[in-house]
Amino acid sequence: MRTIKVNYRPSVKLKRMIFISIIVALVFSIAFYIYSRTFAKSERLGIRMTSIAFNSIMERVVGTMIGMTVSAFIIAFVSLAFQTTTGSRILTPSMIGFDSIFIGTQTIIVFFFGTATEIFSNIYLNFVITAGAMLAVSMLMYGAILRNSKNNIVFLLLFGLILSGIIRSGSTYLQTIMDPSSFAQLQAATTVTINGMDTRLAKFLAPFMIALCLIFLSRHKTYDVLALGEDNAKNLGVNYLKESNFNLVMISLGMSISTALIGSLTFLGLLAVNITREIFKTNKHFLLFLASGLIATLALVFGQACAEMSQGSIPVTVIIDAIGCSYMFYLILKENKKL
């Protein structure tokens, strides 16, 4: 007997219910995170939670929540835009090498200028230098590779992986001959720690990141066409090369800001975007953008709450990377079966 496969598509009503469920789960995760930072921590330490202490902690929590939310949304947005541009569900913008450039820039600053200098200690100046370096390197890569009207995305990714390895090797060498105290401060600055995020910088960057997300959302119809492939997009009147290059610039800008703010979360965008695709079974990018942003925020907030409850013994990056790696293996095997 021949088996007929039916592609399941959830109804509009079901999609709406799923979307609302994600929002409810996010609200629960936020409440769980607040509890883990306040009452759970006070009970563990045997300290009574007063209103003054609660308000003081909440000032920090609000800033951290803003940083986590805008970072999760921008990571999800750039990951979805990158997958649409490259036409692959198993690729992430981190493959271009943003995390290695981030670590390399911080290493160079500490090695040549030290940790006491204004370049390293001033959060705003440090951010401008680090984000600027990531953006400049990515722009140079685009200018060198995506030229002569050729959309060599695959070559760009290969070049990014090679460049990432070279930068990491150089950073490792500089770190080995660095002063131990400087190395310790460098490790603290380049390690992804949600609680170590500077809330002043998060609040300062929030409007810029929200504006960037709105630009992605406003172009959702263009992404719907780009997802059809280069030939179909051209037949529908879209300048594929111009749109692809513009997307890569936007992706570089978003990744530069989010990496400089919160560090590298390689698998967060991959996980959120692909889970969204599996749940909603749609190519409408307006829904995909919003849902993937909410799922990324949910994963980051809930993961951080679990990390708080475990007293930091399991960092949120370990949780996300473990799940993300497992899911990436699943996607690779799934895509391989289609070939």
Task: Write up what this structure looks like.
This protein has 15 helices and no strands. α1 runs parallel beside α2 (about 40-45), α3 (about 50-85) crosses α13 (about 265-280) and α4 packs across α6. The protein is mostly helical and about 350 residues long. Helices cover about 80% and strands about 0% of the residues. The longest helix is centred in the first third of the chain and has 36 residues, at about 50-85. The protein has one domain (about 65-339): ABC transporter involved in vitamin B12 uptake, BtuC (Orthogonal Bundle), CATH 1.10.3470.10.
Helix count equals 15
Main sheet: strands, sense, barrel: none
> What percentage of residues falls in helices of 4 or more residues?
over 70%
Structural class: mainly alpha
Number of strands: 0
Overall form: globular
Query: Per CATH, what is the topology?
Result: ABC transporter involved in vitamin B12 uptake, BtuC
* pLDDT averaged residue by residue: 82
* Terminus-to-terminus distance: 24 Å
Instruction: Quickly name the level 1 CATH class.
Output: Mainly Alpha
* CATH architecture label name: Orthogonal Bundle
Specify the oligomeric state: single chain
Rg is: 21 Å
The CATH superfamily bears the name ABC transporter involved in vitamin B12 uptake, BtuC
Instruction: Give the low-confidence spans.
Output: 1-6
SSE run: HHHHHHHHHHHHHHH
- Total domains, how many? 1
Task: Give the strand content.
Answer: under 5%
